Amino acid sequence: MAxxxxxxxxxxxxxxxxxPGLSGKTTNLRYIYTNMDADxxxxxxxxxxxxxxxxxxxxxxxxxxxxxxxxxxLQLMTVPGQVFYAASRRSVLKGVDGIVFVADSQIPLLDANxxxxxxxxxxxxxxxxxxxxxxxxxxxxxxxxxNLIPVETFNNLLNPxxxxxxxxxxxxxxxxxxxxxxITKLAIPVVKKKxxxxxxxxxxxxxxxxxxxxxxxxxxxxxxxKFVAKEKGVPLRVTKVKFKTQKDIEKELENLAKDFTExx
Length: 264
Ligand SMILES: Nc1nc2c(ncn2[C@@H]2O[C@H](COP(=O)(O)OP(=O)(O)OP(=O)(O)O)[C@@H](O)[C@H]2O)c(=O)[nH]1
Ligand SMILES: [Mg+2]
Hints:
The protein is an alpha/beta fold. Helix content is about 40%, strand content about 25%. The chain has one domain (about 5-220): P-loop containing nucleotide triphosphate hydrolases (Rossmann fold), CATH 3.40.50. About 40% of the residues are buried. Bound molecules: guanosine-5'-triphosphate and magnesium ion (MG). Magnesium ion (MG) binds near residues 55 and 78.
């Protein structure tokens, strides 16, 4: 859920990488982590069960520049693609502001992509979100392999509404930052509009007046979305956290969302 923290001037946005098992969601976050300047990203956190095999989700917080004098913070998250983690997928989607659908381009995986996308539609509906009205970018991944689903087929079957799509090879980093830029560009205006509508409802005139005063006081900063790159990739360090139950995960998700908005 998007938050504005007036004390720190942060605007926090949650982006979820969704898609079938092994399509390359975690690979996106790993590449972003190793190729961003350490001052502009947090730690990469992976939630695992006792067996160390099962991933519940990954989380990478990053900074993405300035818009309307707000510092944009993105909370990048992945869902576990494997079919039996449906409950975790639903939890991670709570309060999502933008989605990157990472599809696996290999022909035998066409059905897995379609099923996963259908699951996304259903899970969002459980949070009262219509897939047609949320910022969404398609990533057709693994374009380096042979035997590929043609882009037109993907667009006809997955993306008839014509959302942006990017052909990628995430494991080499090709298209990873382009995808991130695209979803950020789509999500920011939607989030800002939503926040202002909420303010009007909850805080009424007082809140709006305060914001106008604040905007007057703050020196005009130029809007800029940027992901500050490291010249040379850094070694990957993953913080692993163990959890046992679905309730634990949900509690941790709530805590992460709170901590995140408080960060400077
Ligand atoms: N050839 C190729 N392999 C890729 C690409 N992207 C990811 N992979 C590989 O695909 C495998 C699965 O990648 P992950 O990023 O772990 O997949 P995931 O979507 O997070 O999978 P789940 O966590 O099970 O949902 C890894 O071996 C990656 O190296 C790509 O563009 N091309
Ligand atoms: Mg993963």
